[in-house]
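Predict the assembly for these two chains.
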Amino acid sequence: MPKIKNRDTLISIALVMPSIVAVGIFVYGFILWSLRVSLSQWKGLLPDYTWVGLKNYFELFADPRFHIDIRNTVIFTVVFVGGSLVLGLFMAILLDQNLPGESFFRNIFLFPMAISFIVTGVVWRWLMNPATGSRISGFNQLFHSLGLDFLINRWHTTPTWGIAAIALAAIWQMSGYTMAMYLGGLRGISDDLREAARVDGASEWQIYRHIIFPLISPITLSAMIILGHISLKVFDLIVAIAGKQLPLDVPAIYMWQVTFDGYFFGKGAAISILLLLVVSVLVIPYIYYNLKNEADV
Amino acid sequence: MNLFQSRVPFRFQWRYLLLLPLLFMTAFYLIPMYLMIVTGFKAFDEVSLKTIWQLPSSIAFDNYIEAYAKLTPYLWNSINMVVPAAIISSILGSVNGFVLARWKFRGADVIFPLILFGMFIPYQSILIPLVEFMRSINMYGGLPGLVLAHVIYGIPITTLTFRNYYATIPKELIEAARIDGADLLKTYFYILLPLSIPSFVVVLIWQFTSAWNDFLFAVVLTNPDAWPITVALNNMAGSQIIAWNVQMAGSLLAALPTLLVYIFLGRYFLRGLMAGALKG
């Protein structure tokens, strides 16, 4: 018997080793490689690993463009995550009321998840046409014809806050996802619990306030982390809506331009490592607690 | 009066008022699709800014024909890239998931989270080495390099989905097979693999959708003749020469494969989505 066991162990190792080695190299090896590039003065097409310490990082912290990136990322994250959570919870609660057509609505709210940020961006670029007056179009024209002229705005061409308009397109794409997460949580709450509260005379609002919201708060945290790390990485959607322009710059676009258009590899790598650090702060505890909970169950 | 209270008479009628916000939300989600489809069918002289919300006066397929002619090579690039990428990463995920779910070796508790982390990283942080590496092994610029990237960076999510699924299969089933003399590989091929067809569907759909919709790897790793549809569409939309109606037709063509998968296999798509939040 022990013989068979050893053979099984060998087979197991042989089966997973290729993947472990691949992830080891392509994720961890490449991250270390990027880190090394970020500490070098490499600019131009030929690699140059001359050590410059944290110079690239210090330059970034003093770089006005990077400050715009941070501001834009904060605005985008707050609008996108906040909007998706509010809308997702709202839709999930409505869908949890046993109304007719529930699966129809659910499917409609989720379908944007199936298409690419590029397609979303190409269509939303047209919807968010900033022209006014005789060239009015898109949403602005719709608002005008509905008598909602106060809603007419310049969308992503608004100074400073333009990035929030991009976040609207992202909310359109991803709020169905938060809806699905919340709905899963609401479905997991037993009807007995609600019934017991009703028998005790609780109003429907009190049931949500004191029983259901506390029970689904872990979902809010999960959704914040998942959406938050997506918003830190946002790239395709902005490129498709507005191209690469300074007022709508984010770290991912800056990294792309400085590296692949400008050949400042050291600086590009430094941006990417900073991005990785921020994402890690969100994601590592998340993975840890998820797996720990799983082990406890 | 409380709309929800169960003892209110005609409660079912009041409750239906909640359909109003749902219908409003439906409009919000469908408006971009409406515009995309309607504009794609409009003739060029109808695509003025003023009439964008109106239905076309006649249905014209010219835009689809033009967009299709322009985008066909890129659609094929996408298909040729997505199919092998989805299949290979699903097989790897199944094998890994099987081993990691069944075999508690020392260090498994460390290896699994380390693999998982790979699905959350911003890919910018591996992009420069990836390009250098692909150049050094002569896989830069073409589809094989892009397939390789999707396969490897797909390992975390495919492994996770299969591991979570295999962990739900009763131990007794596996032990019974072992008592009957099946070794590890036979247990996998004859017991677990047939049971995991639904998981394969979930993972294949997930990988198909994410590789089809990917832009970042494609734009960095491929030359124009190997561009997948996302890069080609973005380029087409960025040029001033191509009219809106053709762009919208092109958008629909680019979105159609994943939309069809969603329409016909939405249940499996949703399971993949939830796995992506680690909730297997």
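Chain A touches chain B through 106 residues (CB under 8 Å). Residues 64-296 of chain A form a domain with the MetI-like fold fold (CATH 1.10.3720.10).
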